[in-house]
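User: Hi! Is it possible to get a structure for several chains at once, not just one? Here's what I have:
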Amino acid sequence: MELIIGFIVIVLGILGAALSRQLTDECKAWTPWIIRYLINRAINKLPDEERVRFEEEWLAHVNELPGEVGKIIAALGLLSAAQRISLRISAQKRRSDIVVSIILIFLVVPIMALAAILIKASDGGPTLIKQKQTWNGQTVSIWKFRTENIAGRHTLVGQFLKRTDLDALPTLISVLCGDVTMPSWPDCKRLLRRRFRR
Amino acid sequence: MDAHEPRLSSQTLRVLGALMSSPGDELSGAQIARTTKLATGTLYPILSRLERAGWVQSRWEDGDPHILGRPRRRFYLITAQGAKNATAAVDALQAAFGRLAWS
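Assistant: Yes, the chains can be modeled jointly so their relative placement is included. Here is the combined structure:
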């Protein structure tokens, strides 16, 4: 009987050792994938302009660490880092959006007033409309000057506003309300280049 | 305090201390984490805040990631303004604690 128990213990020991070895190998094989997944999740929380920088920096950080567990713990921490960085940047962006949109509204208010009077005078309908647009992957409602009549045709004033993009001036109100954000300076340059190539 | 100036928590002071302990030396995020014993979730928001405030500057490691065979590290260096502000903050803290101790 003792011989059988001894034999079972030896077999279980061998099986346990083989299984733990297998588990260790599995963990080692999966670690790079887990780290990459966690860093990708963290990067996706950041604003677009910060992603490339932090992706390489954080991969390098994790790469410098010894031990698989330490790497995973560091990568987990990056999720919270990304959340905190993103919250701070969006708060700063909101502050700058408010200041910039107020200054721009103040500068273009005579043009907006004139456009509103002309739209009202053309057919008596509402001057502003709320248009649904996709902005950073989200559907948002933004203010625009009405360019079409009730039949869905462009009015004379509407044609002019559309051609000059002045119909989009009330979007500044949407920026001030926080529905959308001001494009970054590189995006502004790209939009302007595209606008004047037309 | 200016809205863009970083809040001087004990963790922020530890990061500044690590960067000031070897003036002129650049440290990667992992090296700062090792020195300060701060977790990545705490360290990077602090570094990002210090960099935006101009207390710290950073640059990429020289070399191409393809040649290096790994991602490039980002090195952090305390600026003259950062060193001045950090020293002033520590002096103010010491003065305040001194007053507390003797009042």
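The longest helix of chain A spans residues 68-123. Chain A has two domains: 2-89, 95-197.

User: Great, thank you!
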